[in-house]
Amino acid sequence: MKMIKTLACLALAATACSTSGGGTTGAASSDQVLTLAAAGQGPAKAAVAAFEKANPGVTVKTSFTEDDASYQQQLRTQLASGTAPDVFRMWPGGGNTMAVRDLGEDGMLMDLSGEGWAGGLSADLKSVTSDPSGKVVAVPVTIGAIGAVWNDQALRASGLSKPTTWPEVLRFCEDAKAKGVVPFALGLKSAWVTQLVPYALTASLVYGPDPGFTQRQKDGTATFAGSQWKQALEKYLRMREKGCFNDSPNGVGYDEQMQMFGQGKALGVVHVLSAVQSALEFAPKGTTFSMSPFPATDSADGTYVPVSVGIVYGVNAKAKNPALARKFMQFLASPEGQALYATASGSSPALSSPSFKADALQQPVLDAVEAGRSTLYPDQAWPNPKVQQEHLTSIQELFNGTVDVPAVLARMDKAFGAAN
């Protein structure tokens, strides 16, 4: 919780691949060319354009992959083969193969501890941007959150209200289905989406009431199977039974999910707030979006919001242009870069950015943090990527009906124990 409060204070103070070049035309000398890769191109493209404008003559050659799982696999392969770009997006803390601690442990990231912005990081921010030896190897760019994200116009047209308790969620789903509209779009074909509803539910059922739960797992005194994770996954299935989701979510990918949501064929999604940027690509002009904490209990006062550092960037330890890469990191850490990236991604800045203004998506997150109703994403404290990988795969199988809830949790416990 301390980390989240620190992040909030900082913020308040203030499956296709595509490749493109920067805005500069003509040949550029090698010391003026930077290569960059990211999962999701909108915010990164905005940052690149601003960086090139501020540095005449510089060209940033970019590569974007929209699917997180494909991106992680692709970058890992490139890093192993020595063909990775100079700068790339990563995930904070641990939990997957492209997370800071995992890449840092493998010696794939440049030490950025000597940078001016790195010296100003709080201990909490350093904990998710440092490698196992304590060296800062990433710049934190945004604060992300998971909640119920709404298509305001579609919700208004339905005549329904945002649910604030778990019983209201189930009634909302029944009422929306009766009106012939999808309550929450769900795209489990994109494996990373499978974790979002469980994270939203366990924030209120597990990690909010028991912030020391993961440490107790590491100490051997707690398990997924013996916790309210069981109730969370049972509620996930209950939502499906009540018609909360579109048909065949395992056959629907992220882009199709966002299209359904943006066009108003679904009233909402339980998602990271940055997904709104994708939904906007499909939404009619004038469509607006808002967020509310997603409830899991009978009391609105018992609802917690999963909040954490969202996007971080690092530099390849074998970067071809390390000087320019460091300069790009400095830009991302600047108040201008922080505000620009946060606004473009529908997030809040991780570092101080006085010009940033919270909107209907971000304000409920900051309110939850201020009220002490926020938790970290659980995977950032899991011992290594095996737990998350097991979680993602098992949720898809759960929705296929090939495994049950106890089997999913047993698998996750086994992965946690093997990695601990």
TrEMBL record:
Residues 1-21 form the signal peptide. InterPro entries: Bact_solute-bd_prot1, SBP. Keywords: Signal. SUPFAM superfamilies: Periplasmic binding protein-like II. PANTHER family: ARABINOSE-BINDING PROTEIN-RELATED (PTHR43649). This is Raffinose/stachyose/melibiose transport system substrate-binding protein. It comes from Nonomuraea africana. The lineage of its organism: Bacteria, Bacillati, Actinomycetota, Actinomycetes, Streptosporangiales.
